[in-house]
Each structure stands twice: as C-alpha cells, then as structure tokens.
Amino acid sequence: MAATKVRPETCFGAFTPAELAPVLGRADEVTVDSPYDMRLNAQRRGVTCNIYVDGQSGLLATATWQPTGRGFRRYLDNVPTEPVPGLENSQMWATGAAAGFTCTTADGSFEVELKLSATVDGKPDATRRTLVELMGKYVDRAKQQNQCGA
Predict the structure, then answer these.
(1) Pairing of strands 56-66, 108-118
(2) Between 52 and which of 31, 37, 42, 90 could a Cys-Cys bridge form, CB atoms 3.0 to 4.6 Å apart?
(3) What gap in Å lies between CA 143 and CA 48, rounded to an integer?
C-alpha cells in the first residue's frame, strides 16, 4: 500500500496514512512535497501539499490566507457541486472539495480557504466519502494550527 510510505502525519500534519490510503492506492513510489505546517498570515499567504503516487498527483491540498470580507469563491462554475456535509462555505465535486472559514486570533481576523483534490480510482462514492472525511479533518487542523478562536 502506498499509504505506508508516508509519514504518520502528512500534509501539514493533517492526515494519517490510514486516512490517505483510499486516494493513494497501491503504488511503488510515493513522494510528499509539503511544508511542516499551514500557519498563515499576510506574509505567508498560502501553502501547498502534493503527494505524488508513481509520478502522478495522488492528493493536492492547498491552504490560502485572505483578508476578511473578501468572501469565498466558487470553484468550477460549469461543474455540479454540492456542500460538504457539516461544513459552512464549502463545496464538493467529483474530484475535489473546498471550504472556507473566518479565523479569529488574538491578533485579529482573516479568512482561510482550503482545497483538496483527489480521487479513489474509479469509485465515485468512495471518493465522495473520502473527501468529506479528509476535508473535515483538514478544516479542524487548519483552525488548530492558525490558533483560530483564540
């Protein structure tokens, strides 16, 4: 299994190998390109994690800082989307999901936009379930690392 080839917590410490297993499948080679954390601010406006499976992107995760009041964009105007269950300002499509939230810290407020792109090979229902689970954990980890609610 390709997931056994990644660190115990990967992509900013957000995901475990077991959680990533459905999207990584069985591969000979797995490479993770990711910073250690996803702490964002006006100077560090975005971070990206890309997990390559046999040379192809298996999972792409991005986190973007933006000033409050800017709002959250709609991805893929020409593709049907639906909200991610349990997450505000979210949308999900066949190969990805996005969510946004306002983060209030001791230093002020800003907005965070998260995006995931991945598929479970040839299994749309499994892809949907996996994206819902990963996005929920991704939002929680982003709030924790950015000290939202402080």
Answers:
(1) antiparallel
(2) 31
(3) 16
Total-model pTM: 0.90
Q: What does the alpha-carbon distance between residue 114 and residue 88 come to, in Å, rounded to a whole number?
A: 12
Q: How many helices (H) and strands (E) does the chain have?
A: 2, 6
Residue with tokens 């709002």: 71
Strand-pairing partners, residue 103, are 110
* Residue 70, pLDDT above cutoff 90: no
Write the DSSP assignment of 6-26 as a string of letters.
S-SSBTTTTB-HHHHHHHH-S
Pairing between strand 56-66 and 30-33?
unpaired
CA atoms within 13 A on the CB side of 78: 0
Place of tokens 């996803």: 38
At CA 91, angle to CA 87 and CA 97, rounded to 5? 95
Q: pLDDT confidence of 117, banded at 50, 70, 90? A: very high
Q: Length of the chain, please?
A: 150
Q: Which two tokens stand for residue 114?
A: 């998260």
Which residues contact residue 80 at a Cβ distance below 8 angstroms, ignoring those fewer than 6 apart? 93
Structure token digits, residue 100: 């946004």
Q: Computed from CA positions of residues 13, 17, 50, 128, in that sequence, does the dihedral angle turn out positive or negative?
A: negative
